[in-house]
Design goal:
By secondary structure, the protein is an alpha/beta fold. Helix content is about 35%, strand content about 10%.
């Protein structure tokens, strides 16, 4: 379908019909009396405009016909930079787009409440989905649409498109002290992190009462989405985690948690003989210091006052090296270091500016060619581009060097709430320090 024919129909009927009617008109060509034309019109009226296959120019021509303000809810302040760049490229939208900072923990409830009460305020949501909650609780229940611009998707790993349209990828790494280990951290897998666990005493204290825990551990709150979802992924891959133990140590993994815990179906239920659960159980029995802020975590690793130290927090905190911190990521763990945690962007279902929302999203994603938008605004330490035709160059490692896998949200989502419950209860069973 030629653009001019679409626009001619839109401009002629913009004040008379809804968008779906307009596109029905655009489909109903000179031979509208034919059976095929009627069928095409009906299909388009039901499905709506084919936004996914529209160029930026086509979206722009539709967006300027809309009269509302494009409202962007985002959990990252970088979206504000994107809005400013959008206005610079499209000055006619200066008073027709706004950014509203939203808290990660409350934005989902906000979207639901506004939709359920018929007071939809936002047009765009940008949010990180670590656990699958956004997909399974907002997308699946029709609070959000998924916009898959064809020009961008042609340059994205199809597996990363399963749960939405990603803007970029990041992850939650372990940090180590580079002064302590100038040649790299001596860790082969996650099992090295729980080094010192005694299978006889089911703790890090041996039969003689000596503490064998090798690493001093600092973390952010393990019950928060980023970290609980990471542990859920390890449980999902329990067989691979157990196989790694046998490969590394030459002996089958001993499942000690089975003797320490009661598997209460429907209450505190967990899979039996699962390598990921055993790993998490051992981790919960460590002496661990939880801190509120990632900068505090990497600062503790930088100081390493109690010997070899590891810290778990956001990948962006690697930027503390610019302030002299002697820290680096732990990379190359087997069978993987973590999963790619993507930041996704969605149009709000039934928003006031569906074309404008998608125009802004496509602009964020770099436009049709990767260069026409503002994807570079998200280029910073700890992030990777999801487009194969646009490279982020601020992160010193590729995702392949870190050894990241794609997330399994279908399974993570089922384990994620349990991981938080495991952590709270199993930590209460850890020996006091």
């Amino acid at each position: 379908m030629k653009v001019t024919r679409v626009l001619a129909c839109l401009l002629a009927l913009a004040l008379l019909f809804s968008m779906s009617t307009l596109f029905g008109c655009a489909s109903n060509t000179a031979d509208s009396g034919s059976e095929n034309a009627t069928s095409d019109t009906t299909a388009q009226e039901e499905s709506g405009p084919d936004y996914d296959n529209m160029s930026m120019e086509e979206l722009y021509e539709l967006a300027i016909l809309e009269t509302g303000k494009i409202t962007v809810y985002s959990t990252t302040t970088t979206a504000q930079v994107a809005v400013k760049k959008f206005i610079k490229s499209y000055p006619e939208f200066e008073n027709r787009i706004e950014y509203i900072e939203s808290d990660t923990n409350t934005v989902a409830d906000r979207i639901e409440t506004e939709s359920d009460t018929g007071n939809i305020n936002a047009d765009v949501l940008q949010v990180k989905d670590n656990s699958g909650e956004i997909f399974y609780e907002l997308v699946q229940y029709d609070y959000l649409d998924i916009y898959y611009p064809a020009s961008v998707c042609a340059h994205v790993d199809p597996e990363l498109l399963t749960y939405g349209m990603p803007v970029y990828a990041t992850y939650s790494p372990w940090y180590y002290n580079t002064e302590t280990y100038p040649d790299g951290c001596p860790i082969e897998s996650w099992w090295d992190i729980v080094q010192g666990y005694d299978t006889t005493t089911r703790s890090f204290t041996n039969a003689s009462g000596q503490n064998q825990q090798f690493w001093t551990i600092y973390t952010k709150d393990i019950t928060s989405a980023s970290y609980a979802a990471l542990w859920a992924q390890l449980i999902v891959d329990g067989d691979a985690i157990a196989a790694q133990y046998e490969t590394q140590y030459g002996t089958p993994l001993e499942y000690t948690y089975m003797d320490e815990l009661t598997n209460n179906a429907g209450i505190m239920e967990f899979p039996e003989n699962n390598g990921g659960v055993e790993l998490f159980w051992r981790f919960t029995q460590m002496v661990i210091t939880e801190l509120d802020d990632g900068d505090q975590v990497v600062s503790a690793v930088d100081e390493s006052l109690n010997g070899p130290t590891l810290g778990l927090c956001s990948g962006s905190k690697l930027d503390n090296v610019n302030n002299g911190a002697t820290i680096n990521w732990v990379t190359g763990l087997q069978p993987y270091t973590a999963f790619k945690a993507c930041d996704y962007v969605y149009p709000i279902k039934n928003c006031d500016n569906p074309a404008g929302a998608r125009l802004f999203i496509l602009y964020m994603l770099g436009g049709d060619d990767g260069q026409s938008g503002c994807l570079s605004a998200f280029n910073s330490i700890g992030k990777w581009s999801i487009r194969d035709d646009f490279v982020f160059d601020k992160t010193p490692y590729t995702s392949e060097e870190v050894n990241l896998k794609n997330p399994d949200f279908a399974d993570i989502y089922s384990y994620y709430p349990d991981v938080k419950a495991y952590w709270i209860y199993w930590r209460s069973l850890a020996p006091s320090t």
